Amino acid sequence: MPIKESELILNPDGSVYHLSLKPEHIADTIIFVGDQDRVEKITKHFDSIEFSIQKREFKTQTGTYKGKRLTVLSTGIGPDNIDIVLNELDALVNIDLETRQPKETLKSLNIVRVGTSGSLQADVPVDSFVLSSHGLDLNGMLHFYQIDDIRRPKIEKAFIEHTNWSSEKAKPIFIDNSASLEALLESDKVYKGVTATAGGFYGPQGRVLRLPLQNPSLNTKMDNFNFEGTRITNFEMETSVIYGLSKLLGHNACSLNAIIANRANGTFSENPKLTVEKLITYTLDKLV
Q: How many CB atoms lie within 10 A of CB 202?
């Protein structure tokens, strides 16, 4: 049965609804950034740019860097946007948009997030890079999909017990990264650890302005969590959903974050733009 028009929405030109992209517009390796202004901070390094488009916060540029075809795409902030971006990218490569049928032969994309984040560990300093060994999903979006095959029950149980996790919140999920992309992107310059993904910036990440928190000590408990040497290094708003949906759809994903704040020490980078620029050049050179 063809996928209904209400489920797979296409624009009049045949492009996918939110991203305004067609299959020929994207490369097999895609760099995700949150901020649309960061797209050109990456593509300025390209030898050439063949395609560029923006709709809402979703800006896409495809070009060549040192002979390798790459796409850079801004996702905007948060798990809900990642749900849109990954499903529409998968549709571009794994659904025939004319017949609205899944293809018999499926393609795997390589997806690398280049983001910014705050460290939860005193020994992961500002201006360092963190490669996410796992995404820790605290926002609940992935629970709308069938996820049993991608979960890590032992570490999830340990985390729930350690943090006294409220049963009124979505159950935490741990998802592995792509081992092949980790091997490509790692080096002795990069820290590794679990990246926690929240559904918001203030309360969900333990920030207090005027509203009290349901669990004021959650960040401290997360700092101290250690499961067989695996610990939580940083907090942001996208990685776990990128990992989860990529696993479910058959894509490879790995997340790199520039650490611009240290929550444990209360410090902030003196030059976050420079740190991000260094992470961009590091990532591009690793990918080629």
A: 13
- Of 64-68, 187-191, 208-212, 261-265, minimum mean pLDDT range: 261-265
- Could you tell me the two tokens for 235? 């907090």
Residue 260 per-residue DSSP state: E
- The reported pLDDT for the residue numbered 263 is 83
List, in order of start, the domains of the chain with CATH numbers.
23-287 (3.40.50.1580)
> Exposed, middle or buried, 183 (CB in 10 Å: 0-12/13-18/19+)?
exposed
Inter-axis angle of helices 239-249 and 79-94, nearest 10: 30
pLDDT reported for residue 118: 86
Nearest residue to 25 via CA among 49, 41, 9, 1:
49
Residue 204 has pLDDT above 90, yes or no: yes
